Amino acid sequence: MSSRRSRSRQAATGVSRNISDDQINELVSKLQELLPELRRSRSRSDKVSAARVLQETCNYIRSLHREVDDLSERLSELLATTDGPQAAMIRSLLSQ
Question: Which residues touch 53 (CB under 8 Å, ≥6 apart)?
């Protein structure tokens, strides 16, 4: 990493962190292994840029947010039409 990028990061965070290029590459590789889209299409010889890994990470997080929203909406609809001790227990857990 260039010293200019390092100084820029230090100025932005107010903290001096000496993260090496190797550490960044290792973190990007670990992140890539967690992403279903890149895990499926990746063979051992394929190199994926850090920018692509970060973009796919953002896309994946957005899709997870949409999925959580959809499931929350479905649960709300289900609870609105359901009555009984189980529904009451679920409502009390959700309100905590």
Answer: 28, 31, 32, 35, 38
